[in-house]
Amino acid sequence: MPPFLRGTAARSSLRLPLFPLNAVLFPGGRLPLRIFEQRYIGMAKACLRDALPFGVCRITRGEEVATPEAPAAIPEFAAIGTLATIRAWEMPQLGILHVTAQGGARFRVRSHAVQADGLIVAEATPLADEPLVASGDAHRPLAQLLELLVERIGSEHFPDERSFDDASWVGFRLAELLPLPLSIKQTMLEMNDAEVRLVVLRRFLEQHGLLQPPGDGRL
């Protein structure tokens, strides 16, 4: 087992490679990636070989891809990210790896270091899953809207296991689908209250005319 992959989300701490991105991965979400930098191709191969995850963190400052002008530049990234497990992959051409990863548990980065190849390796602490809360009648319009979006976008773009009565699952899926600024998506990820997340998302939808206020009786 590669030394930077010791630990799992079930333990009190873990050491894992990070893939900073201009994106937010939510628990249960799907993340398609086109990988061509050698540091990340090597990371993906190691994760596939040992059936272990890597970490995805949102970039707060800097770039995803190293450039000739700044080959050693390391982006700044959010302290809270999501474990990602590769579910499918293909290499359509030499040096290009396409993978589909699925979001798992959230984690908090405690410290990090940069390897000689530019790969960031973090010491992190897994965060507990949110308490299971039913979405309930009050948030049923959000679940109905999500069902409609799944139907229109295509079920193949969503996890096979769907839980429209789970407040966390509904909130995470809406947060990843809605055109929210990345900073707000990050806030939705870091929030540890499924009901509050749904309230915030509903307010956004109502403000943009995508959902009627309570009492209207229509989506």
Main sheet summary: 5 strands, mixed, barrel
Tally of helical segments = 5
Radius of gyration: 18 Å
Examine the secondary-structure arrangement and name the CATH architecture of the largest domain.
Answer: Roll
How would you write the strand order of the largest sheet? 1-3-5-6-7
- Classification by helices and strands: alpha+beta
Percent helix range: 25-40%
Question: Helices and strands in order, then pairings?
Answer:
Blueprint: E1 14-21, E2 30-35, H1 38-50, E3 54-61, E4 76-77, E5 80-93, E6 96-114, E7 120-126, H2 140-153, H3 167-177, H4 182-190, H5 194-207
Parallel strand pairs: 1-3
Antiparallel strand pairs: 1-7, 2-6, 3-4, 3-5, 5-6, 6-7
Helix pairs in contact: 3-5
Task: Using brief descriptors, characterize the structure shown.
Archaeosine Trna-guanine Transglycosylase, Chain: A, domain 4; 28% helix; LON domain-like fold; 5-stranded mixed barrel; alpha+beta; single chain; 219 residues
Summarize this structure briefly.
With 219 residues, the chain is an alpha+beta fold.
Describe this structure in words.
- With 219 residues, the chain is an alpha+beta fold.
- The chain has 2 domains: 3-126, LON domain-like (Archaeosine Trna-guanine Transglycosylase, Chain: A, domain 4), CATH 2.30.130.40; 137-207, Orthogonal Bundle (LON domain-like fold).
- Helix content is 28%, strand content 29%.
- It has helices spanning 38-50, 140-153, 167-177, 182-190, 194-207, and strands at residues 14-21, 30-35, 54-61, 76-77, 80-93, 96-114, 120-126.
- A 5-stranded mixed β-barrel has the order 1-3-5-6-7.
- A hairpin with a 2-residue loop joins strand 5 and strand 6.
- The longest helix has 14 residues, at 140-153.
- The termini are far apart.
